[in-house]
Amino acid sequence: MLRVQHALLSPMESLVSASTAVVPPNAVANSRSAWSVLKFGGTSVSKRSRWDTIGRLAMARQAESGPVLVVVSAISGVTNALLAIIDAAQRDADKTAALVSALCETHREFAATLQIDADGVIGHRFAELRALSGDARATCADVGWQAELQALGELMSSALGEAYLNQQGIPIRWIDARQHMRAIVLPNTTEWAARLSVNCHIDTSPDYRAAFAEQGALLITQGFIARDEAERTCILGRGGSDTSAAYFGARLQAARVEIWTDVPGMFSANPREVPQARLLSRLDYEEAQEIATTGAKVLHPRCIGPCRESRVPLWIRDTERPELAGTLIDASAADAAPGVKAISTRKGIVLVSMESIGMWQQVGFLADVFAIFRAHGLSVDLIGSAESNVTVSLDPSENLVSSNVIDALCADLAAFCRVKVIVPCASITLVGRGMRSLLHKLSDVMAVFGRERVHLISQSSNDLNLTFVVDEAAAEGLLPKLHELLIASGAMPVDEAAVFGPSWRQISGQAAARAACWWQSRQTALLSLATGTPRYVYHLPTARARAQALAAVEAVDRRFYAIKANPHPALLRTLVDAGFGLECVSEGELRHVFASVPGLDPVRVLFTPSFAARQEYAEARALGVRITLDSVYPLQMWPALFRGLDLQLRIDPGFGSGHHEKVRTGGKGAKFGLPATRLAEFLAAADVVAARVVGLHAHIGSGVTDAAHWRTVYSQLAGLAEQIGTVESIDVGGGLGVPYEPDAPDFDLQAYGRALAEVKAAWPQYELWIEPGRYLVAEAGVLLTRVTQCVDKLGVRRIGVDAGMNALIRPALYGAYHEIVNLSRLEDAPGAPADVVGPICESGDVLGRRRRLPASTQEGDVLLIATTGAYGAAMASTYNLRALPAEELLDD
Ligand code: LLP
Fold first, then answer.
1. CA angle 380, 383, 384 (to 5 degrees)
2. The ligand 1 atom nearest the CA atom of 810
3. Confidence of residue 211 (pLDDT cuts 50, 70, 90)
4. In whole angstroms, what is the distance from residue 240 CA to residue 351 CA?
5. Residue 14 has pLDDT above 50, yes or no
6. Which of 546, 564, 580, 871 has most ligand 1 atoms within 8 Å of CB, for mutation?
7. How many angstroms is it from 805 CA to the middle of ligand 1?
8. Which residue has the higher pLDDT, 863 or 404?
9. Going by C-beta distance under 8 Å and a sequence separation of 6 or more, which residues neighbour residue 591?
10. What pLDDT score does 348 carry?
11. 108, 241, 264, 577: most buried, per Cβ within 10 A?
């Protein structure tokens, strides 16, 4: 597989001296013309306060470094309004007139907020707008006419800006960008692209710069617009203002181009989807190009090329948060070590699969089919080839991939091959330098893709990206998990502070303002318990608090604690006292609960095993607890065991969810539950032994954070319950997630309560049962362990402790994250990253990777591993014949 790379190299590149390539921007300023190009997008020019910021920044740059060119977009929404006018003008004169008036009014209103007389400043543009909207060229949607109309947005905003800034005493001068931006016509350019999506010529001659400087030292101009050889107005297309700024930067050999926008810069993933995404402080041009091309919206990919060719540093800055350094893109970041910098997705990808029986070594097959793509003006993005098949992807942001275009393409391709179009697809791309040397770190990421239907995998020939094309629906929600796995595996080196800035969550102030953890104020008490390590310590008040919080969820009628999370007798008694029943999955757990909780009523106990042996069911029956079956086998093979019983039936709702593949318990790949399609068979078998299905049950996974899951589960079960007729209760299982990372938000119990209340209101006839484990006990537990050795090996620092995967298997088994602190030195500053490893003879025996524990950490210190109350001691083993960890309680 290969990826077709856009032409990134230019002859200019070889002329750039190595010295300028590694000099930081301020130093560069001294070696070049001192122009700064500042570009402001739609939202950055749509408020008076923003224009004040523009004025302030322009003056500051001028004072710091020299002349300034401000490049602006149209006011927010104006380009879309112009497109609506273009659309209406072709058929509906009244609607057109109304839209034109509305657009003039928008500008008048905005000008009023600036205390500017709009008709005085841009009245001639209003007249042009009216004239163009009635132009005869409208009837045939002439591309030149469209360009002239669209250009008006920037012409108006820049003129209003000039007037306002002048009024504020800032002597900025308006220039017409079309005098400078000259469109060039590339081979195979369509008529549409020649006016509505142009590329521009870069004149870097000293004469040009000298002439430009004659116009003044503080200038304002338009992004997005240009002029062709015949002096006709053209536009650069979407993202054109960024590109204009870059062209100006390149032409002026500017000290820097600053793109001022409404986000702080480029991130390691789309922050709207992945709040943990990190701001990328520093990127080289090639990486930035890949990130922009493969999905990040902050910068249009086209705008990097001109800066890259001229080695002009490009800065992304946030107008609302000017104090943030943003993302700096320049040549000096290219020396960084290999690592994934970002993961991005693009939707709306069209895959065209071309099947030809006789293609193998058939000279010219590819030339023939690609000629057809060219004829339809389509540029191909990814390519996969096999003996008799070539599959290519078309990116909608680079192509006009309407169904008409695709139909016409397929009709022409049909002459050469069998064509199949696969839509809608999404591409998920990992971007970073040295992708091929990172493959060994990507096994967990690959495992995630392994569960999806991957249509195409492509690695770019410049070693900067690895792309997976999947069905669009499959890509939904994958990003946060993949981002987390990239960090956990070390493939994304977030500890490199020069490259990875703060997370979006920190920047946006969403970092969870979680109540301090109980252990933070119990350093002395915990240290005194750390006599025999490894040792778990459970804080009963925390478990009680969680139980109370769950008890307050009104929609729930009965609550059971899934004791597999932590069967410590004191916890069982605490939770039973708080009103919880107990959910068991084995004969051992059943015996344990009756032994630990004196006088426990069997009615408060559920038995929900998986593939248990016959005698375990016999034992459960003898104890009188509620039994859950999840297949027909026990009923058919051991009918006597279930005769006359009231049973609960576990259904597989057909999908799973949860923090890791290994804890998802629904769908074909999971062993749990009866598929709804076999319900009739189950009921028939129950009838034979006069057993009744009085409860339906489902548990789809563990560590779920989206409350909608339980609503879906309950709705499905309620639908089946109506068919069965004897059902009294619906048990939606456990699975509630907890925050493991220090900045992760708490589980949204309110949303959970609302989701359950909705379904309960829809089917009030059933009792609603839940059976959480982790939520009740995870945060109540910590694991104390002692440092045994600190070792540096080949550049990796390792802190050895006496707890390994035998004491806490979650990191090794699921790549799970647990916060680790040095309890002996809570006040000491963090040091260089180190891996915290255990004493087990397995390379997976790592409790935490790249943790910043104090540099002073030494043998004998006590480390605390947080949020280990669930599935910690419960899953411990004596592997390597190491003793089981001890357990201790705190009750204050
Ligand atoms: N009900 C049933 C039927 C279950 O199988 C489980 C957990 C629960 C309730 C409780 O789920 P919770 O609320 O704790 O998520 N060892 C894994 C978790 C495995 C969960 C197994 N079943 C981990 O450490 O993440």
1. 155
2. 24
3. very high
4. 27
5. no
6. 564
7. 19
8. 863
9. none
10. 87
11. 241
Ligand 1 atom nearest to 697, measured from its CA: 3
Span 110-122, average pLDDT: 96
CA pair distance 759, 467, nearest whole angstrom = 40
Distance 443 CA to ligand 1 centre (A): 25
- Residue with the smallest CA separation from ligand 1 atom 19 is 663
Q: Whose CA is nearest to atom 8 of ligand 1?
A: 734
Q: How many other β-carbons are positioned within 10 Å of the β-carbon of residue 448?
A: 17
CA of 537 to the centre of ligand 1 (A): 21
Ramachandran sector of residue 328 (left: φ over 0; alpha: ψ -120 to 50; beta: rest): beta
Nearest CA to ligand 1 atom 23: 871
Pocket test for ligand 1, best of 628, 659, 702, 868 (most atoms within 8 A of CB): 702
Segment 692-746, tens digit of pLDDT: 999 999 998 899 988 988 999 999 999 999 999 999 999 999 999 999 988 788 9
- Whether 584 sits among the annotated catalytic residues: the reply is no
Number of H helices, E strands in the chain: 31, 38
Burial of 871 (0-12, 13-18, 19+ CB in 10 A): buried
Higher pLDDT, 788 or 397: 788
Contact 782, 526 (CB under 8 A): yes
In this prediction the pTM is 0.64
pLDDT tens, position by position, 607-636: 999 999 999 999 999 999 999 999 999 999
Q: Which residues line ligand 1 (CB under 6 A)?
A: 562, 564-565, 583, 608, 663, 699, 702-703, 733-736, 771-775, 810, 870-871
Single out the residue of 563, 577, 470, 587 nearest to residue 869, CA to CA. 563
List the residue whose alpha carbon is closest to atom 24 of ligand 1. 871
Of the candidate ranges 275-289, 419-433, 464-478, 765-779, the one whose mean pLDDT is the lowest? 464-478
Predicted confidence band of residue 882 (pLDDT cuts 50, 70, 90): very high
From residue 21, alpha-carbon distances to 249, 313, 332, 791, 804 in Å are 16, 10, 6, 38, 47
Q: How many CB atoms sit inside 10 A of residue 298's CB?
A: 23
Over 60: is that where the pLDDT of 22 sits?
no
Q: Which tokens in the block code for residue 649?
A: 């039936």
CA of 800 to the centre of ligand 1 (A): 30
Tokens describing residue 473? 């629906």
Specify burial of residue 10 (Cβ count, 10 A radius: 0-12, 13-18, 19+): middle
Kindly give the distance from the C-alpha atom of residue 222 to the centroid of ligand 1, in angstroms, as a whole number: 58
The minimum-distance atom of ligand 1 relative to the CA of 870 is: 24
Question: Nearest-CA neighbor of 628 among 696, 560, 721, 685?
Answer: 696
Contact 686, 647 (CB under 8 A): yes
Residue type present at position 413? L
Mean pLDDT to the nearest integer, 106-127:
96
Tracing tokens 């064509």 back to the chain, one arrives at 419
